[in-house]
Amino acid sequence: MISSDLKIQPLTRDNLTALLELDKACFHGLWTMEGYLRELESPNSHFLGLFSPFNDCELLGMGCFWSILEEAHITILAVHPLYHGQGLGKAILYSLLRTATDIGLERATLEVRDSNYVAISLYQKFGFKTAGRRRGYYKDNNEDALILWLSELQQPHFLKNLDQWASFINSPF
Does the active-site annotation cover 123? Predict the structure, then answer.
């Protein structure tokens, strides 16, 4: 069960240092400061941070998607390694999907390493299906990416699922 004291809110330039620290802990420097700044300033980018209930400055996780026509393209979802296994990824993914539905998007997509079974399982719990594969997508080790797809974000059955997930996650969003 996730604490209702956790805060998920849009990230700003003020969070840049925390973003870089979280990126280093999770991805060993996947994105640069310029890359994060570009995301924070883009009108098509929706960047959320999950903050500790005990320290407003402690960024425990992050998620981002781009609004492209009717689609939410999830570009990043990360939880600090010290907090894995506590349902925080669920809370971030829920918040990304809630934001996408709130702004009227109809579909969501993402790429995930085909060896990242924990992330794939999380996405599948939210209804994502495998739509394809990008061979050699990850340049650090030439690993393939699975393309995952979720449609019907505006359909009543999906909106009902979102409401059920909100109560399961037990958070104020």
Answer: yes
